[in-house]
Design a protein that fits this description.
The complex is a heterodimer of chains A (298) and B (329). By secondary structure, chain A is mostly helical. Chain A has 11 helices and 4 strands; from the N terminus they run ααααββααααααββα. In chain A, a hairpin with a 5-residue loop joins β1 and β2. The chains are: A mainly alpha (298), B mainly alpha (329).
């Protein structure tokens, strides 16, 4: 592997890792702040991607489709939280898994009714369609750099909101003592609704910006969900910092697992078993730190 | 109604009714009942973890699928395998898979346990999905069902659907008795104690990690019995047998019926399969094929059940009986 191929794969793994972070940070926020395990999180990634595709077709541009889609998902999430999710806060995790699994079935079927079961491609907007030339025959697509940029910007904004604003302060306070915050006259139920919508919107946004690269297909939600679980397990539950580190690690493991060749005793292990590399990574981390990098010891 | 409260009598009545099924029902329903019983074995094995040990496993299909794959891989292409060899081998394989996964997952608890069991099951799913082992993504057909030959004698023939049904029923009854005995034994008490207060059990001197691991392995092995029977009944194995949709479905059966009882998962499996069948055969109303969207109805049903049935159907029944008893007394 020469330097430029390595560089391209490195950029790819960072881009994939950051995108994963966008989805997983929403999941880990819900887990950490609200104590909710939402297995339908991946469905919002899928919904985001389908919205990007269909809105871009109808409105003519991905630039309008993305904000419109985010607003739409926030609205859906708010209604959903009010309708069912808020009833889960004090319930056992088992019921949270079940109810949100039921939501997956509902979302998948609605998706099939509204958009069908076909695979769709989404066009990259004109300005970002080019490539940066690296050597005579190798180049790197600008759009992938754009994805990384957006994810980084969102990560920084999230850090700022949680650590530096009044809203973030209330959210953190609600995490440590819900009743106390409520008795100080803060509407914690509304705050929770906002956090839920925010977490879900992150997943949808990730689906939207990933759509031109990954294309849009029915099983995309569960695929990303399970990898996000791995991110949360490795990074530590509720830790945004941990999610970032774990996402990047998984980005490297997955990308290089697909391009490297590894043979032991005549049996080809990589790239054949590349989809297992991230789980092996998880197994190793579990042996070493059962609570993940930044998780609280239980 | 008094005799219904007697558990043994109730068990015998249900068993007698199940024995009579093939004498009255058509082939479709005999096979459907066999499917329910297979799922009931599977659900009971999961309940050992969910209801008794308090371990919320979201990857239980891994052990179900492993046993199926063992049968498929032990069956030569143009020959039938032997039941008495492949069944123990398949169950042993499931137990080994559960032991290996268990060593990793039993260290974690709570939400971690849910996520980690799912992730490991998915790893196994990808192993069969992405490689060419046993037909890859498409799975593999078991053209010839295993034969039940001992020496020169063949007590039953698995190409006959009625014989398959009775094999399933016999194993179902055996699993029920085994689990009932086990749960009443000191081992079962320790497991229940760990669910309620693990630290206290630890300070009483019980090696709780080892107990939980053994429980995980037993649950995996019993799931393997179900997986083997599933492969025999359907004549095909594929990666979806290990998929997380199956893990979620079986979890739903346990909770729907009622966790922490053995009758609960059995009832839950029956109701779940009947609902699936009912939703799939919904008619077309005003140009809208309702049956095609059975997943949607199933999803709505799960949401409502998760919100309104905290103790499952068994809990509803118990509450009704209690109210009646209270009115009488």
């Amino acid at each position: 592997m020469d330097f430029y191929t390595f560089l391209i794969q490195l950029l790819n793994s960072v881009q994939y890792g950051l995108l994963l972070f966008l989805v997983a940070s929403g999941l880990t926020l819900l887990l950490g702040i609200m104590g909710i395990i939402n297995v339908a999180h991946g469905s919002f990634y899928m919904i985001g991607a389908y919205l990007a595709w269909s809105l871009a077709e109808q409105l003519g541009s991905l630039w309008i489709a993305i904000p419109a889609g985010v607003l739409l998902t926030v609205a859906i999430a708010m209604v959903l939280e009010w309708l069912v999710i808020r009833k889960l806060y004090r319930r056992d995790h088992l019921y949270q898994v079940l109810l949100t699994y039921g939501l997956i079935l509902v979302f998948e079927d609605m998706r099939s009714v509204i958009w069908g079961d076909d695979v769709h491609g989404v066009n990259i907007p004109g300005i970002l369609a080019g490539s940066l030339p690296l050597t005579d025959n190798l180049s790197y697509p600008v759009y992938r750099l754009f994805i990384s940029g957006v994810c980084l910007a969102v990560a920084l904004a999230m850090y700022w909101i949680i650590q530096r604003t009044r809203l973030g302060m209330v959210v953190r306070a609600g995490y440590s003592n819900r009743e106390m915050v409520q008795s100080l006259g803060i509407n914690i139920e509304f705050i929770y609704r906002v956090v839920f919508a925010f977490g879900v919107a992150l997943a949808a946004l990730a689906g939207m910006i990933a759509a031109p690269v990954s294309s849009v297909f029915p099983g995309m939600g569960s695929q990303v969900l399970i990898i996000c679980f791995v991110v949360v397990v490795i990074g530590g539950m509720g830790s945004v910092k941990g999610a970032l580190l774990a996402s990047l690690l998984i980005g490297f493991a997955d990308t290089f697992g697909k391009v490297l060749h590894l043979e032991i005793g005549g049996i080809r292990l990589l790239p054949e078993l590349s989809s297992m590399t991230v789980y092996l990574l998880m197994a190793i981390v579990l042996l070493w730190r059962p609570e993940g990098f930044f998780g609280k010891r239980v | 109604m008094g005799f219904l409260k007697n558990r043994t009598a109730l068990c015998l009545i249900v068993l007698a009714a199940l024995v009579l099924v093939p004498f009255f029902a058509e082939k479709f329903y005999v096979q459907f009942f066999a499917k329910i019983l297979i799922m009931a074995i599977f659900a009971m094995s999961l309940d050992l973890l969910l209801g008794y040990a308090g371990l919320v496993s979201f990857g239980h299909a891994a052990f179900y699928g492993s046993a199926g794959y063992v049968l498929a891989m032990m069956t030569p292409q143009y020959q039938a395998a032997n039941l008495w060899v492949t069944l123990p081998a398949a169950v042993a394989a499931s137990a080994v898979v559960a032991l290996v996964i268990g060593i990793f997952v039993v260290r974690t608890r709570g939400i971690y346990f849910i996520m980690v069991t799912l992730a490991f099951a998915q790893m196994l799913f990808f192993l069969f999905h992405d490689t060419k082992i046993a037909g890859g993504n498409d799975g593999i057909f078991i053209d010839l069902r295993p034969v039940a030959q001992i020496g020169g004698w063949q007590p039953f023939d698995l190409d006959n659907f009625v014989h398959v049904y009775f094999l399933v029923l016999a194993l179902f009854a055996a699993v029920y008795l085994l689990l009932r005995t086990m749960l009443a034994s000191p081992f079962g008490r320790v497991i229940a104690g760990i669910r309620v207060n693990e630290q206290r059990m630890q300070s009483l001197g019980y090696p709780t990690f080892r107990y939980k691991l053994i429980c995980f392995v037993i649950a995996g092995a019993v799931a393997g019995i179900a997986g083997y029977l599933g492969a025999v009944q359907f004549g095909v194995v594929n990666p979806q047998m290990m998929g997380w949709h199956l893990s979620a479905s079986v979890m739903m059966m346990v909770i729907l019926g009622g966790m922490g009882t053995l009758a609960g998962p059995i009832l839950g499996a029956a109701v779940w399969m009947l609902l699936e069948l009912a939703f799939q055969s919904l008619p077309t109303v005003a140009g809208l094929d309702l049956g095609k969207h059975w997943q949607l109805w199933m999803g709505v049903f799960i949401v409502i059940a998760a919100l309104s049935l905290p103790k499952g159907l068994i809990g509803v029944g118990a509450a009704l009986l209690k109210r009646k008893g209270g009115a009488r007394g």
